[in-house]
């Protein structure tokens, strides 16, 4: 029996019916948390909750673009469990794949409404509940490698994920006074149902594409790996980590692969060259 790292904790997870959200629901439940799983995919959401069973997971419909639904979902969680210790604000969309020259601004607005405004709403109402109950909670948001590297996602998606990192840093600065930690996770490409649908590819095709571009070879990134990162940030093992954007990208966002197979020299002050 593994250590129950979230025993006695109550978690609210958005975008919980599939992909990263579903894996996180399952992992948090394994580690002793009780969970309200929120999504707009009702059939899938109820299936996830039923498959875990034992009263550990309750599904609740929530479209994060609607602040009233977000507030109602937070209140539902409080009425059912009396508190919220962890928020994993994971709901998001990829949006249109069109380039900037053909950008559909209505689609752009919808992406921002989901990926930024929706997250802001979940942080706002969950943090209010934590502050009112003096809970030193953990808030985690899903960003992306696109939050730090351009050209890795559509325009609206990339813009929204950059904005989300700013939101996390801003919320961290304010909520630290209440002992609430705010962090984010930036995954590399994963074959989630969302990604497969957006790019019209099978999971093995998405994984093959990601592996071909990856810096770290020999590992296929899965949704479970992101859930494990969320588990760490949610647990007391990360008790003094806040304002951090945890990249789970195998070094992709910090390495220029175009130089990886070519000897590079750098010039130092003596005008000699040192191999690097």
TrEMBL record:
<protein>
    <recommendedName>
        <fullName>Short-chain dehydrogenase reductase 3b-like</fullName>
    </recommendedName>
</protein>
<dbReference type="InterPro" id="IPR036291">
    <property type="entry name" value="NAD(P)-bd_dom_sf"/>
</dbReference>
<dbReference type="InterPro" id="IPR002347">
    <property type="entry name" value="SDR_fam"/>
</dbReference>
<dbReference type="Pfam" id="PF13561">
    <property type="entry name" value="adh_short_C2"/>
</dbReference>
<comment type="similarity">
    <text>Belongs to the short-chain dehydrogenases/reductases (SDR) family.</text>
</comment>
